[in-house]
Amino acid sequence: MIKVAAFVFNAFGENSYVIYDESGEAILIDPGNYDADESAELTGFIEENGLKPVLVANTHAHVDHVLGVAFAKRKWGIPFALHEQDAVVLKSVRAYAPNYGFAAYDEPEINQWLVPGQPLKFGTSSLEVIFVPGHAPGHVAFYEAESKQLIAGDVLFRESIGRTDLPGGNHATLLRSIREKLFALPDDVKVFPGHGPSTTIGHEKKYNPFFRNSGPL
């Protein structure tokens, strides 16, 4: 069964995750570490727990979620996986990162594509890749059925949803992704979002204002 370790990094308060199991192998999801202290925190956790990172996998490629990808690739010599439709989003980061104070941003090379239906396998575990566009064109979520844990990125937050006013965003598409893909999961699935506290699918179906008054789910 997988374990999920969460870290809050960079000026956007972005949630970065280390997913690992009893084998010691780990996948880094959305590493947003930017400065030396944040990178040291991430490295310290991995070393103290004797983990072996084998992959960086991103839910999407907005600046706050990719700041630490190049660092992770260099530090552990691991590949970077992203959905093909978010490649253009990643390419745009270099142009606007300095405007947000990230002048030292290092653009990572993509090594493999995330394909819905093709699980990410590591150690004795695997993560299902779920395609949930709307916040970003190639946004995905990662789900582990045995432990009922979902890394949702910026699609679904506690009693909120991701913004859709950025290039490639679409409000109707995002609502459909949540309703058809995420709300189809069991109510007791724990949701780890890209920002803010964790929640559950059941809680969001009942209390999320974007769905609460939209009829039966």
Automatic annotation (TrEMBL):
Database matches in SUPFAM superfamilies: Metallo-hydrolase/oxidoreductase
Domain Metallo-beta-lactamase, chain residue ranges per copy: 13-195
InterPro entries: MBL_Glyoxalase_II (IPR051453), Metallo-B-lactamas (IPR001279), RibonucZ/Hydroxyglut_hydro (IPR036866)
Cofactor(s) the protein requires to work: Zn(2+)
SMART domains xref list: Lactamase_B
CDD domains: metallo-hydrolase-like_MBL-fold
Keywords, in A-Z order: Hydrolase, Metal-binding, Zinc
Superkingdom, natural source: Bacteria
Pfam family, one: Lactamase_B
Name the UniProt record assigns to this protein: MBL fold metallo-hydrolase
Organism from which the protein derives: Ravibacter arvi
